Structure formats: C-alpha cells, structure tokens
Amino acid sequence: MSTKRSPSPESEDQSATPVVLVVDDDEDLADTCEYWLRDDYDVRVAYGGREALDAVDETVDVVLLDRRMPTVSGDDVLQSLEERELDCRIAMMTAVEPDTDIVDMRFDDYLVKPVTKTDVRETVEELLVRSNFEDEVQRFFALESTETVLESRDTDELRDPETLESLRANVESLRSERADEIELRQRQLDHLHHVNDLLREVDRAIVDATTREEIEEAVCLSVADEGSYRGAWIARYNRAMDGVSPRAAAGVDAARLSDRVETVRPLVRDVVESKTVRVVERITDEHREAAFPSESTLEDPVSVIVVPVLYRETTYGALFVYADGPSEFFEEHVEVFEQLGRSIGNGINAAESKRLLYGDTAVELEFEHADDGDLFVELTRQLGGTLTLKGFAPESNDSVACYVTAEGVESESLLEEATKHPAVERARIVTQNGSETLFEWEITDSAVLVTFVGFGADVNTLSVTDGQGTVVATVAPDADLRALIDSVQQSFPEISVVAKREVERSVQSTDAFRHELENKLTDRQRDVLETAFVSGYFEWPRGSTAEEVATSLNISAPTFHEHLRSGERKLIETFFDQTGLDAGDDAARSQTESD
Q: What 3-state class would DSSP assign to 8?
C-alpha cells in the first residue's frame, strides 16, 4: 500500500502558519529568536510581560517566555495565560536557575539561557507536535521536561528535594498508566529530531560539496549514517526510454534495484513527473531482497519515502530513503522531506550554474519552439510580430526579470496583453527606438525561459516570430541533458531539439577585461570615473559632492553627470557581457553620449 502526498503550496493562508510569541525584555535576544523562526512561523515579539498579555490571543500556538522581567514577570504572564484558558504550548526561556518552585507551574518545557538557534527551533517544533497529543500525554511530557531540568542540578542545591521525588513518582505513574501511547509519541518525537538532524546534516554536506556528484553522494551517506534510516539512493529517470538508473547510493544496492525490480520504474516516473512525494508503507519482498541482498529474514516490514529532487520547476531525480517499521513517521513528516528534496535541488542547481560559469567548454542545445503554453509564442501568435530576448536575471522570489525587444507589433497592445497574462508579475516599456520597443517583464511561469533558468542553463537566443521560434541554451559539458530536455518537454511538448554541439568558452583574464573596458571608455569618461572614485564620491556619506568633483575636472556638474553615467554603463556592460546578462542591450541604453 502506498500514500501519495502533494507538495506544500508555495503560498499558504496565513492562518495555516503556526503562530509563535517570543517574550523577553532583552530586545536583542527577542529579535534574534524572531530571525531564527520567521522563515517557518508567524512570529510576534513582545519586549515585556505587559506587551505579551496584549499580544497573546487564541491564535497563538507557542509562547517562548522569559521569567525575569520588570513590572509584569514571566511567572505572572504564565498564570494569566492559565486563567484565560488559552490553548497554547509554553516554554520558559530564562537565565533563572530552575528550582522546585517550578513543579507547580503549568509550562511545557524549560530552556536555560544561553540558548542556540537549534535549541529554539527544536523546542518550537516539538511543542507543535505535542499540541496534538491527548491531554494526559501532554501532561506527562511537560512533567518529564520539568524533571529533566531539575535533575541537571545537584539535589543538595534544591530548595525542597522531596518535591523532586514526588515529581518523579508522578512521572512514573503517568508512564505506567499510558505506556503504549507514551511509547508511540516518544518514538514520534525522536523521529522528528532525527529528521531535523538529517536536514541540517544534508545542508552542511551541500555547502561543502562543489559538484552534483559530490552533493548526491554526500546526501546518501548522510542519510545512511543517521540511525533512523537503513539507507538511501538517488534515481535518475530517462523519460524518453522510460528507464531508471542510480546516480548515488549508500546502504542500498541501487544498481540491483534498478535492474531487477519492476515496481521501481513506475514509482520513480510518478514522483518525477508529478513532483509529489510517495510513501510506501511496506516494500515488496522482491524490492527488499534487491535492496538488501545480504538479509536472511523478511519478517519485519521496511518502508520507504520517495522524494522529488526539485529546483523550481526542474526535477533532477528522486531520493529513496528506507526505514525499518511502518511508514507512519514518514507520513507525518512529508513536508520536511519535501524541504530536503528542494535543498538538494538548490545545491545541484548552484553547482551546475557555477560549473557553466567557470568552464572552458560547454554544450549548446538548439530547439525549435512553437508551444502555445509559452508566453512568447502565445503573444506573437495572438498579436503577430517578433519577440527577442535581450537579457535576463533571476530574481530572489523565483521569478525572472527579462528584457525583450518587440518588432512588428503595436507596443501599447503588447504591453496591455503582457500585463494581463498570468505569467507576468509586472511589465513596462523601457525604451522605444523607431520600430523596435524594449520591454522589461518579470515572469514566473508559463514561459520556457523560466524552465531553462531553473535548470541553470544560459539562454543565448530566444526569438519567436508569429508563433514560431528558436531557443539556443548553453549548459555545462557534464550536465544531465536528458533531465533538461525532459523537464522542458514535460511543460512544453511542442518544443524539440534540432542540434547539439560542444562549444569553447572564452575565459577572460583581468588584463583582458581591463583592455576591453579601456577600449570602450573615452579619456574623459575614464578621468571622471577615476576622479570620482579617489575623491570619495561613491562613499556614503559622500567624500565629495558632484559639484566639487566637476570643479576639480574643470567641467560643469551636468557634464560630469553625463560622463559619469556613460562610464558607469560601459563598466557594467563589460562586466555583464562576461556573466551572461546583456543588461538590456543597446536598445535600453542612452542614445546620446558625449565624448
């Protein structure tokens, strides 16, 4: 039996995001905790007890509460929250050494400062999981947390050691009464920590790796070394041949699996094409014998989670992770494994892009393009004319800013249609020069450019006339070309490869860059740039004003600005010519220059 889960939406309703309230009169610490948590939670900050009472309401899920605060202490806030019967989990986060007075306080966990990012994040994660436990089980874990923190002190230093003994008795009584449920929930919490440890370990491995191969091997080794898992492998899927092959593995005989187990191929195909996680509750005997051929018994079940390795809309393959026992913990942490798949994809994309940037050779792919699903094709088929990509730059929000020239089409009509298109976040006219208009578009999807950029390719040519076009893209020589082509054709079926060729890439030295720039700059532009630089004009606050620099050069301030802008443009142009961005090309530039 298998369970299929869809990936989390990129943008969720705010009410679905857990709310964490951080309360501390140490504003620096409170702000730091907010920074640690804000990527995953809706974080509120209160710099004191009174502010906390104003900020807390029924929407708050977790409170991190300092004890020692002026006017309204953390203990007072805790008592008020209990009286208001708010259903939230509370962790005391304080430098106050714990003593037996805390036994009767109704909190869920106790953190002693100084705290780390890991302390804070793991506490919030665990308390959110605990909030779904039955009341008596929640109470057990809260009392156990109190017992643990008190046992960190010498018994002789405690105000009332007998209270600790009574607490221990209560904990053991609850444990015996709800043994099965507590054991199940403890395993759940242990698995939560294992999964998060794995995520952090993989992130560290990705940072240290420099190639795709190193990343994939490091990920599989990190999974296999984690005690909760039996092993892992990363599968490549060849869409044209409907074939599966292993790229890296640890603890698993992946080559034997891909050759002998017929059920693996449809599983990988489904994960790669649907971009969804699959959880298999119990793998078949055939699957298990192939994956772990040295085993002598097949009595205990083995479950597996299969995760798409994604970067934006590009799928690099599928990650298999095996574990002993039922799949319930995999199913509860699907979102964490989705994040793991995206982390691996981000690392691979960065490595592929870096290799393309610094490589001496590259592979150039040429495509015929007539797919209506693409923004360029759709607009030219609707309005006529020619659209030509002049430059692009990936944005931090997963969109792409691109500069496009249009010929043979009325510019205002094109602007109107582009603005209405769901793939276009914003559009504007940059310049108009005779029959040619330069546009700037920020696009998100429904554009073949986004797919190529997501793979880390450099798009050299993208030109479409009346719905028929050409795309020429460059990738690193050892890039997974089949994965790129599959990814493009999955979204845009009416695009086909017509040529593949290896090309030499010129690697420019510092001297060559300087020579090219000097050939572009006039003497006056060079003098203006150098004088402005050495006089502190580019500093903030400025070391010299524009008027002061102009006076030293014996020119007027308007002339200074004109030369400065022209020189800056040529400097930036020369830089971006070497990094793949055309900076809007000549149509975006000023049409007049003064020597």
A: coil
Backbone angle region of 312, left / alpha / beta, with phi > 0 → left and psi within -120 to 50 → alpha: left
Distance CA 366, CA 497 (A): 6
Q: pTM for this structure? A: 0.57
- Beta-carbon neighbour count of residue 211 at 10 Å? 15
**Terminal CA-CA length for the chain:** 75
For 360-385, give the DSSP string: SEEEEEEEEE--TTSHHHHHHHHH-S
Count Cβ atoms below 10 Å from residue 409 Cβ, excluding itself: 20
Question: Quick one: the chain helix, strand, coil %, rounded to 5?
Answer: 45, 25, 30
Contacts of 111 (CB under 8 A, 6+ apart): 64, 91, 92, 93, 94, 119, 120, 123
- CB atoms under 10 Å from CB of 330, counted, come to 27
Beta partners for residue 232, in sequence order: 250, 321
Residues 6+ apart with CB under 8 A from 485: 240, 365, 497
Digit-by-digit pLDDT tens for the chain (595 residues) are 343 333 333 334 444 789 999 999 999 999 999 999 988 899 999 999 999 999 999 999 999 999 888 889 888 999 888 888 888 998 988 887 777 777 778 888 888 888 888 889 989 988 988 888 888 888 888 888 877 777 777 777 777 777 777 778 887 888 888 888 888 888 778 777 777 777 777 777 777 777 888 889 988 988 888 777 889 999 988 877 888 889 999 999 988 888 888 889 999 999 998 999 999 988 888 898 888 888 755 667 888 999 999 887 788 899 999 988 776 667 667 888 888 898 898 888 878 777 766 666 788 899 999 999 899 999 999 999 999 998 887 776 677 888 899 999 999 999 999 999 988 988 888 888 888 898 888 888 768 888 888 777 888 899 999 999 999 998 887 777 887 888 888 889 999 999 988 887 655 555 566 767 777 888 888 888 888 887 778 887 787 788 888 887 888 888 889 889 888 888 887 776 655 444 334 433 333 333 3
Which helix (H) or strand (E) element contains residue 321?
A: strand 314-324
Buried b (16+ CB within 10 A) or exposed e, 122-142: ebbbbbbbbeebeeebbbbbb
Residues 6+ positions from 408 with CB-CB distance below 8 Å = 384, 385, 386, 435
Residues 101 and 92: beta-carbon distance below 8 Å: no
CA 267/CA 330 separation, integer angstroms: 16
User: For residue 550, how many other CB atoms are within 10 A of its CB?
Assistant: 22
Burial classification of residue 480, based on how many CB atoms lie within 10 Å of its CB (0-12 exposed, 13-18 middle, 19 or more buried)? buried
